[in-house]
Amino acid sequence: MRDIVLPCADSLGMIELSPSEAALRAIPAREGRCFSMPESQASGYFWIHAGKDFAVSVTSMTLHRDWQQRCPHPRFVALRHLRSGEYILPDTGLTVKAPYLEGHVSRTRTWICTHKASQPLHSVEIMLAPPFYERYLRAVYRDEAFSAEDAFSSIDGLASFPEMTLLLGQIEAYRGRGASAGLFYRGKVEEAVALVVDRSRNLAAASLATPGQTEHERAVSPEDARAIEHARQRLDDRLTDPVSAEELAHIACMGQTKLRRVFKRAYGCTIVEYRQRQRCARAADLLTTSDASVACVASAVGYRPERLAELFARIYGTTPSAYRESLGQAGSLTSNTIHVDAPRASTRASSAPPIRSIR
């Protein structure tokens, strides 16, 4: 991957920073290479640890003007957690907004996207060349035919994948150096591939879980998809405030029974489960990016501390305090202030899984 990513960084006008230059800018010290844009274009940094067939990276930038990214795009797959910011894909017109988990498979020779100015762009990414994931799948799944590209595509836009969110957070928080860093990153990449394969299988199984139902019956019509999307946006816009079933049904222009049925069919969970996952995802982000107490985080997402602990453990398999400790954030937290009205709470519409629509 170094033969792909590093020339791309150079073509974008990025400037490599020495360890001392990075330290002067208070950039976290990690094993790998660190780049910045010219000061007239952006502040922040792009860090990458690139091997021959895989790479992990962290982007933390604020652009001073709209910027179009254009890079050669050979065959590879990628997994990116966009934690803040947004970008536009000119070929489709699609706007991707944080928080968003992107499973990306290259399908063109050139990657083009447009980033908007003045929006903090923060993401953690894993990139894999075909030799890595094809060799890995042959070794681990010897007796099965499985496409890594299909698996990565299937998890694009998942609203809830806490295991992957935790793994990517661990990659960002890691500060090891030398040979141990290479082993750590490769191990995390292999773990990520296993998680993607397992989740892809589960999604495929879930789509066939209702006996006697055809694919047409399991799908959501375009009209219902648009209607239920409006209802889900209301849930995201009022993440910490009560939203009644009557209000959602009115927004979607359907009865409450149909609302519940279509919502679960579209997003793979009930309305209550979706709301719990989104609140816990917001809590996980606050635990990562602030040093506010767990009680303060719970209040910011509309829960009592004990209720947050219960739901967080159910979704993430650990307590909020243990989650923060696992990320090793003690030395890298940036603020003890929580902005409960931050716009991120209103942009969660982009983090939902794609709806299966009837064409």
TrEMBL record:
Residues 343-359 have a biased composition (Low complexity). InterPro entries: Homeodomain-like_sf, HTH_AraC, PchR_regulatory_protein. It holds the Pfam family HTH_18. One of its GO terms (molecular function) is DNA-binding transcription factor activity. Residues 229-326 form the HTH araC/xylS-type domain. It comes from the Bacteria. Keywords: Transcription, Transcription regulation. Residues 340-359 are annotated as: Disordered. It comes from Paraeggerthella hongkongensis. This is AraC family transcriptional regulator. The keyword Disulfide bond does not apply.
